[in-house]
Specification:
By secondary structure, the protein is α+β, with helices and mostly antiparallel strands. The protein contains five helices and twelve strands. Helix content is 19%, strand content 37%.
Length: 301
């Protein structure tokens, strides 16, 4: 091995190159973080004898500054030059919603050129599933409000066409976000083209009401990913309290997956994922049910 340091075509060593490097030779895009915090909560109902219905909910903040002043957005903000992306995500989540010490998974990086009207912005999104009852959500920083919204995901149209090169599938998904005060909505157009082994996927907003930036695309993508992860990971148990019934667990899976499940098949699938306890529900109005807890040694095969 040579004792002489490597030099580039200009005859510079790495130390010399870095000493003269011009950091302004290229334009600097800004980097932001956006967080998708999901939960599943009981819906209010008048008949106490019925098991409570549940809904998938998403945490949003109301923007207190331009652009999109007064519209609702995912919690998030700009990454400082001296912090990691993950640290920025935790800082922004706490400053805007008062939530801290939350485990989040990196979801996707969004880099459409004109996705932010202020400047060139690349955003890294994170996703988390939480038990909402453990959180004390309060708006802060440049958010004028923070609130949970019921989420619905509806495929309004889907069709596939065959071309000379392969196939193209177009799908239109309506995202509806609703609480007692207001309703937000958007339609996302998803086009997937397959040519041999090459697969291209694009998303665009074709309709939006009250949702800032391109966050409806992030929400649509997150729901798809959440459904996929529910099938092969234990992520859903992040939504559950320490003790729960199998019916409650099944209902949460049904809310996430957007479909009904056969009770017998579901219980077989969950047999190793849960541990039976000696405790029962004490709810008035219906028969006590056996309570279970998550088995941390379980994993999908």
């Amino acid at each position: 091995m040579s004792d002489h340091p490597l030099t580039n075509a200009s005859g510079l060593t790495e130390i010399q190159f870095l000493a003269t490097y011009d950091a302004d030779a290229y334009e600097h895009p800004s980097v932001t973080v956006d967080m998708l915090i999901f939960t599943v909560m009981d819906l209010e109902q008048n008949n106490y004898r019925k098991l409570p219905q549940k809904s998938l909910q998403l945490l949003l903040i109301k923007r207190g500054e331009h652009p999109y002043l007064g519209q609702w957005a995912l919690p998030g903000g700009f990454v400082a030059v001296d912090e990691s992306i993950e640290d920025a995500a935790r800082r922004e989540l706490y400053s805007e919603t008062n939530i801290e010490d939350l485990y989040m998974e990196q979801l996707f990086t969004w880099g459409a050129v004109h996705r932010d009207p202020r400047t060139r912005v690349i955003s890294c999104s994170y996703m988390a599933l939480v038990d909402r009852t453990t959180l004390d959500v309060r708006a802060g920083d440049d958010a004028t409000d923070a609130a949970w919204f019921d989420v619905s995901y509806t495929i309004e149209a889907e069709h596939t066409t065959t071309t000379e090169q392969g196939t193209e599938t177009e799908k239109r998904v309506r995202i509806k976000l609703q609480n007692e005060q207001q309703t937000l909505s958007a339609v996302v157009r998803i086009v997937e083209s397959v040519q041999g082994r090459v697969r291209k996927l694009s998303r665009e907003i074709v309709e939006s009401e009250g949702i800032a930036f391109d966050h409806s695309i992030m929400i649509e993508y997150a729901i798809e990913r959440l459904r996929g992860k529910a099938e092969y990971t234990d992520i859903v148990f992040n939504l559950m309290p320490p003790l729960f019934t199998l019916s409650e667990l099944q209902r949460v899976y049904e809310i996430i997956l957007g479909k009904e499940l056969l009770a017998a098949a579901f219980r077989r699938k969950m047999a190793d994922a849960v541990t039976e306890t000696d405790e029962y529900t004490k709810d008035a109005g219906h028969r006590p049910s056996k309570l279970y807890r998550y088995n941390p040694e379980w994993s999908h095969r």
